[in-house]
């Protein structure tokens, strides 16, 4: 009955269907198959072993099952939180990138308008140089002076606007570059460290508990007839081969796309802006240091 109960649970599973085709099973799964085969072979001895199974082995296996389910649920919650945080970081990167593009576009536009104003000023001065001011009538001088003042005033406004937009563009680019590095660091940490730790949490103590439970089973089995030793030796070898590191490596190899870190986010230049390093200038130096410390503190948590 014990063998049938466990067999019915896995008979339709993918691992059971491929058991004869693929012998490279996880160490714990291999133990289960060997345990079931041994139990079928020794069904006549169940009356003798019933007390040990009921009061020890089954209780431990039930505890292991409950612990695994609890750990899995908790690890799943943590994994969802970690993934949401990673999505939040990438969304922040996209936002600051769009902000940088917007301010850089405005800076280019302001620079173009400033150059137009400078050309108009040069053109006006050139005309003034070609004319003899002394030959102009008094009533002709006033409009010309007024025109020059208007051009100068327009140039000053555009110069101020350009300086303002240029500063905004530098700040936005600095923020983008900082966030870019922070996002790459967070992504690397997630795939290289966090996922590995999360996998370890999913089966924390599982192999050790399973090892102890099966050791108890083996100890009881060795008290039976000598004819059973061959089957018990096979199970003992499987228990000795329980290897959480090997199981984890095999699991990760089965799903390489889920555990390999993606390529780093690269700086995307915008409309000819080839500056890919943080610009440290007096107007943004203090703010840059503060932002760097904030990102550094966030990455440390």
Automatic annotation (TrEMBL):
Gene3D superfamilies (UniProt xref): Arfaptin homology (AH) domain/BAR domain
F-BAR domain: residues covered: 1-247
Keywords: Coiled coil
InterPro entries registered for this protein in UniProt: AH/BAR_dom_sf (IPR027267), F_BAR_dom (IPR031160), SLIT-ROBO_RhoGAP (IPR051627)
UniProt-recorded name of the protein: F-BAR domain-containing protein
Organism of provenance: Nothobranchius pienaari
